[in-house]
Amino acid sequence: MFTFTLDATDGAARAGTLILPHGAVRTPAFMPVGTHGAVRGLHPAEVRRAGGQIVLGNTYHLHLRPGEGVVQALGGIQRFTRWDGPMLTDSGGFQVFSLEGLRRIEEEGVEFTSHVDGSLRRITPEKSVEIQWALGADVAMQFDHVVPGQASWELAREGMERSLRWLARCRDRHHELAAEAPGASPQTLWPIVQGGTHDDLRRASLDGILARGSWTGVAIGGLSVGEPKPVMHRVLDDLEPRLPRNIPRYLMGVGFPADLLEGIARGVDLFDCVAATRNGRHGTAWVADGRVNVRGATNRLSDAPLDPECDCETCTTFPRGYLRHLFVVEEILGLRLVSIHNVRFLVRLGEQARAHIDAGTYDSWSRDWLRRHHARGAP
User: Fold this and answer.
1) Is 245 a domain residue?
2) Residue 39 and residue 150 in one domain
3) Distances, alpha carbon 5 to alpha carbons 1, 10, 234, 246, 336, in Å
4) Angle at alpha carbon of residue 323, lines to 321 and 327, rounded to 5°
5) Biggest distance spanned by C-alpha atoms of the chain
6) Which of 41, 44, 137, 175 could form a disulfide with 83 if both were Cys (CB 3.0 to 4.6 A apart)?
7) Which CATH number does the domain housing residue 94 bear?
8) Same domain for 255 and 288?
9) pTM score > 0.90 for this model?
10) Residues facing residue 293 across a β-bridge
11) 16 in a domain, yes or no?
């Protein structure tokens, strides 16, 4: 349990198998995001049929509604959501720090105003761990201090050093909770590398994390938050040879198609992002050639599949003309069908990457794929 086996490598790209209490995850893998305990608009069986192996739950939102006590009383997050596979919960740190003007950061924790009912709340490192323990996901994340993508060295250093202090508090509280409930479903805690876009701070963060314990996985946070893509790539390039090889690496909040392949090339194993379903709800579908605007008039008489290369339920069943019609008449089925495709597209991209890592052809394949994807202006 909580083991990671490195099955193959091709340069820095890795194919592995992560064993968690609720199942195995073959990496590299995209994690669909279930913000409120559901991947937006999709049935758990649809997520499974799309190839989803592990789902992310959002601590901040589940804390506000329905409350972790409700989830715990109903058997934990897997039983509550009826997703029987592995789950990971984020710490709530990113959401809290996004509440500009509605939160106050102190060493003890963060005080914030709920966006739901205006109530005053406080999350500390200990409280974040307690919420996640009650939710009961396989993997919990440390509570960290996230800074903007263009943060100065001084601000990034403050966030990085506070994240290390909070990590120690998260670790200690997590150990206490495990000792108090020896019969509970096992859960592991992962740390988060911070430091903005400053390589020296990122290295110091990783060194501090490794000095504070032995971990079953490590996350890289605070990227794709406003910094240019080449800067994110540079940070990952610098971190990759310093990261432990024998545990999975999770790049938080990153999940556009090109980002997956660029991250995999730099040794990342796990990704998550809300963009798959968010873009789907707005009628944007990802395909290997870039993007398709499902609402576009050119699709009105099209009997072609959304993506002829895709094996998802949407692409093997419905033509573009019908999908466009669903969006024009504001039929909710259209939102769901394009979301299913986008989730499958990213999951399948991870599967394809794994196959090419196994074959030793990842670099040439990914470069050709990215060249084709960007040719029509995909972001």
Assistant:
1) yes
2) yes
3) 11, 15, 26, 7, 35
4) 115
5) 63
6) 44
7) 3.20.20.105
8) no
9) yes
10) 284
11) no
Domain residues for the domain of 312 are: 280-374
End position of a domain, from candidates 266, 288, 321: 266
**Block residue for tokens 């597209």:** 345
Examine residue 132 and state whether it is found in any structural domain, yes or no.
yes
Does one domain contain both 242 and 286? Answer: no
Tell me which of 221, 242, 266 is where a domain ends: 266
Q: Which residue has the tokens 């069908």?
A: 337
Q: 340 with 312: CB under 8 angstroms?
A: yes
| Per-residue tens of pLDDT for the chain, all 379 residues | 899 999 999 999 999 999 999 999 999 999 999 999 999 999 999 999 999 999 999 999 999 999 999 999 999 999 999 999 999 999 988 888 788 888 999 999 999 988 899 999 999 999 999 999 999 999 999 999 999 888 999 999 999 999 999 999 999 999 999 999 998 999 999 999 999 999 999 999 999 999 999 999 999 999 999 899 999 999 999 999 999 999 999 999 999 999 999 999 999 999 999 999 999 999 999 999 999 999 999 999 999 999 999 999 999 999 999 999 999 999 999 999 999 999 999 999 999 999 999 999 999 999 999 999 998 655 4
3-state secondary structure of 359: helix
- H or E, element range at 346: helix 332-359
User: Measuring CA to CA, which residue among 85, 176, 183 is closest to residue 139?
Assistant: 85
Separation of alpha carbons 137 and 151, rounded Å: 32
The two tokens of residue 31 are 């994690």
> Is 150 within the bounds of a domain?
yes
Catalytic residues: 90, 272
Structure tokens at 128: 């974040």
